[in-house]
């Protein structure tokens, strides 16, 4: 009995994240999760974060969800015939073992769509990410100012990359 109690205690101690704001899911460590304040009436926002895979097997970011958005997609931004475009990654984003993948303006990002309300600077927006192997992990996006590392194409490029109105 004593042994079992101690084991349980040890396990709970080791699952506490090292730093406030960081999140862990299995062998994945997620840091620097952030977003930007949304302009008036905006229905979309980008989500950015760093994912490190400390394990020996590949994993895959396959989706996300949150009360603040009707839909969360994983997008890739790329130059296409001189035009900055975005496309959803239907199969998700691979996180190779030993590698760190950064979601940042101008590259991979989370697309939070059908926002239920504005993001204001200083907000912490709760979001759940889903990984193929590590499962679900909840974290919060630190909302920065409107112009924080904002690529000009971000908001404007969204109406047509999927062919859908949002
Ligand atoms: Cu996008």
Would you kindly provide a written description of the structure presented here, covering whatever features stand out?
It is a single chain. It contains two helices and eleven strands. The protein is mostly beta strands. The protein has a seven-stranded mixed β-barrel with strand order 2-3-9-5-4-10-11. It is globular. The protein starts with a helix and ends in a 10-residue tail after the last helix. Residues 11-18 and 150-166 have low confidence and may be disordered. The protein binds copper (II) ion (CU). Copper (II) ion is lined by residues 75, 86, 109, 111, 158.
Please describe the structure with a list of short key phrases separated by commas or semicolons:
about 170 residues; mainly beta; 7-stranded mixed beta barrel; 11 strands; about 10% helix
In this entry the ligands are: copper (II) ion
Largest sheet: 7 strands, mixed, barrel
Specify the number of helices: 2
Report how far apart the termini are: 57 Å
Shape designation: globular
Low-pLDDT segments: 11-18, 150-166
Mean pLDDT, to the nearest integer, reads 83
Percent in strands: over 45%
Order of strands, widest sheet: 2-3-9-5-4-10-11
Secondary-structure-based class equals mainly beta
In percent, how helical is the residue content? Answer: 10-25%
Following the backbone from N to C, one meets helices and strands in this order, namely HEEEEEEEEEEEH
Rg, Cα atoms, Å: 17 Å
Beta strands, count: 11
């Amino acid at each position: 009995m004593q042994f079992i109690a101690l084991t349980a205690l040890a396990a709970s101690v080791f699952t506490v994240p090292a730093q406030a704001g960081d999140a862990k899911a299995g062998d994945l460590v997620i840091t620097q999760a952030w977003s930007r304040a949304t302009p008036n009436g905006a229905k979309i926002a980008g989500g950015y974060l760093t994912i490190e895979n400390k394990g020996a097997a590949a994993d895959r970011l396959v989706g996300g969800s949150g009360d603040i958005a009707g839909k969360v997609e994983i997008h890739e931004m790329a130059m296409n015939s001189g035009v900055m475009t975005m496309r959803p990654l239907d199969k998700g984003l691979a996180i190779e073992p030993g590698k760190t993948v950064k979601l940042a303006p101008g590259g991979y990002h989370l697309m939070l769509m059908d926002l239920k309300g504005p993001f204001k600077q200083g907000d912490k927006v709760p979001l759940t990410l889903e990984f193929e192997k590590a499962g679900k992990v909840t974290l919060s996006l630190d909302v920065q100012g409107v112009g924080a590392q904002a690529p000009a194409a971000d908001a404007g490029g969204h109406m047509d990359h999927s062919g859908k109105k949002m």
